[in-house]
C-alpha cells in the first residue's frame, strides 16, 4: 500500500504546531467505487464497487485529489444486455501513488440463444451469472489488492440468475430462484455499510433476489413491472436484475470517498467543491472530523 499508518510527530504533538510549523496528521480513508449494473432479461445482479480502507499521513501544503466513480448507467439498451461496469474511485497526492477502488462488474443476461454477454463481468466485486453459461459469474477483487476489495458474483443452475458480489460476501448462487446480492462491509468511523451486491431475477412472483446490505438493488421477477431497483447512490451498490424480455438494464450506485482526521486538525482542512462536506463525529477511536466526497474534489491541509 502506498499509504502507511504513520502517526509519529503528528500524534505526539496532538496534531498541532511543532518547531518547524504544522506537523503531519494521520488519517483513515474509505474509497468505494461505483457499482455494476444488473442484466436483462433473465438477468443477474450487478457487482458492488470495490471497497478499500487504510491509513496515511498528510503534510502541510499537500493537496489530495479525490475521484468518485459513477455507477453503471441504466435505462434503454439492446435486449438482451449485460449490466454495465461501474467506474473507479481513487485518492491521490503528489507524495504517493494513487490508491484505486475498481468499479463493480455487470450482471449477466440469459438470452437463451447464444452465449454472447451471458457471463457476469469482473470488477471490484463481480457480476452475478445466469443459467446459460456455467460457471458464469464475474470475479471479484479485480485487479487484485490486499486485503481484497470485493468478492465474486454467484453462479446459477435452473431457470434463475444469481446475485452480484459484495464487499463482505460473494453473491448467492441461484437454483431456481433469484440469488440475493452479497452483503457489503462497514467503515468503523461512521458505522455505515457500503458496497452490497445486486439481487438476481427470477421467472416467478416473489422469487427474485434481495439486494445485499450496503445499497444493493433488488432483482425483479417476471410479474413485476418496471422500474427496476438500482444500486443506492453513494454506496457503490450493484444494480438489481430484470427477468422480463425487453426489460431495461439497471444502474449501479455511485461511489463515495471519506477521510477521517483527528478533530483538532479539522479546522485546518479545506474541502472543495462545496458539495463535499466536513462534519465532527465521535468514533470508537475518539473525536474525528469526517471529510465526505460525493463528487470529485480536493482536500488541503494548511
Question: Could you characterize the architecture of this molecule?
Answer:
By secondary structure, the protein is an all-beta fold. The protein has a domain at 8-29 and 256-301. The chain has 1 helix and 16 strands. The protein has one helix spanning 8-12; strands spanning 17-18, 21-22, 25-32, 51-58, 63-67, 89-93, 96-101, 156-157, 174-175, 185-186, 193-194, 256-262, 269-272, 277-283, 286-293, 297-301. The strands form 5 sheets. It has a 5-stranded antiparallel beta sheet. It has a 5-stranded antiparallel beta sheet with strand order 7-6-5-16-13, with no helix packed on it. It has a two-stranded antiparallel ribbon with strand order 1-2.
SSE map:
Blueprint (H helix, E strand, L loop, with lengths): L7 H5 L4 E2 L2 E2 L2 E8 L18 E8 L4 E5 L21 E5 L2 E6 L54 E2 L16 E2 L9 E2 L6 E2 L61 E7 L6 E4 L4 E7 L2 E8 L3 E5 L1
Parallel strand pairs: 8-9
Antiparallel strand pairs: 1-2, 3-4, 3-12, 5-6, 5-16, 6-7, 10-11, 12-15, 13-16, 14-15
Question: Quick summary of this structure?
Answer:
With 302 residues, this protein is mostly beta strands.
